[in-house]
Amino acid sequence: MNSDWLQSYLDQMQQAALEVGDFIKGTRKDDFLKDVLKQRAVGMNLLMIGEVVTRLMEEFPEVVAEHPDVPWIKMQGMRNRIAHGYFTIDLDTVWDTATKAVPELIQALHMLRHWRAQGE
Predict the structure, then answer these.
(1) pTM of the model
(2) Torsion angle of the four alpha carbons 66, 70, 72, 73, in this order, in degrees rounded to the nearest 10
(3) Within 13 A of 51's CA, how many CA atoms are on the CB side?
(4) What angle do CA 98, 99, 102 make, to 5 degrees?
(5) Residues recognised as catalytic
(6) How many CB atoms lie within 10 A of CB 56?
(7) HSE-up (13 A, CA, CB side) for residue 115
(8) Domain map of the chain by residue range?
(9) Exposed (0-12), middle (13-18) or buried (19+): which is 106, by Cβ within 10 Å?
(10) I want to staple 101 with a disulfide (CB 3.0 to 4.6 A). Which of 43, 65, 97, 119 is the partner?
(11) Distance (Å, rounded) from C-alpha 113 to C-alpha 49?
């Protein structure tokens, strides 16, 4: 795999993460817990992030190994949980992920985009 694919995966993750922020912007947790459309939108984007992470882990294991601070396994696990347990998902966890982990992911993606340029 070449760096164009890596960049594409990082772009996809960033797009999905930014959309999560857009979906919940100005929303309180209580409102999110009542809004099935927002829940589905956020859940789908978390699933998409996890799917890209799975591909990245398979095709660019060196990136994963060099960045153990990024919660790769948790993102993959969230994808699996949403994909296979969609009617029993803990919405509090989805909210916490959207409001805490996703902003952290956006910051990590910025770092990942520049990791080779800084290190080589």
Answers:
(1) 0.91
(2) 110
(3) 10
(4) 55
(5) 79, 84
(6) 24
(7) 17
(8) 3-115
(9) middle
(10) 97
(11) 16
